[in-house]
Amino acid sequence: MPLNGRLSKEIARLEGEITEANARLLSMKALSPVRQAAVVEQEKSASLI
After folding, report:
1. What gap in Å lies between CA 3 and CA 16, rounded to an integer?
2. How far apart are CA 28 and CA 34, in angstroms?
3. How many CA atoms lie within 13 A of 23 on its CB side?
4. Coiled coil: which residue ranges (predicted)?
5. Rounded CA gap, 2 and 14, in Å?
6. Which pTM value belongs to this model?
7. Distance (Å, whole) CA 14 – CA 9
8. Residue ranges, the chain, pLDDT below 50
9. Residue 32 gets which letter from DSSP?
10. Tell me, what's the pLDDT at 13?
11. Which residue blocks in 1-49 are alpha helix, DSSP H?
């Protein structure tokens, strides 16, 4: 695959990750600070598995 095609796919993948992260941030803003910390810890634990 030409470099340009691979870069386009990687950019699309990263844009998807950014969109997901932005959605998580927006949902976190609706939570209290204590709940935000709990969600962050839960996500950290899940990513270690």
Report:
1. 20
2. 11
3. 6
4. 4-31
5. 19
6. 0.57
7. 9
8. none
9. -
10. 97
11. 3-29, 33-48
What does the alpha-carbon distance between residue 5 and residue 35 come to, in Å, rounded to a whole number? 42
**Who contacts 28 (Cβ-Cβ below 8 Å, separation ≥6)?**
36, 39
Q: How many Å apart are CA 20 and CA 22, to the nearest integer?
A: 5
Return the amino acid letter for 27.
S
Here the tokens at position 1 are: 């695959």
The two three-digit tokens of residue 48, written as one number: 């270690």
Read off the tokens for 3.
């470099």
User: In angstroms, what CA-CA distances link 16 with 20, 21, 22, 32, 34?
Assistant: 6, 9, 10, 27, 28
Q: Which amino acid is at 12?
A: A
Radius of gyration of the chain (CA): 15
45: Cβ–Cβ under 8 A, 6 or more apart, which residues?
Answer: none
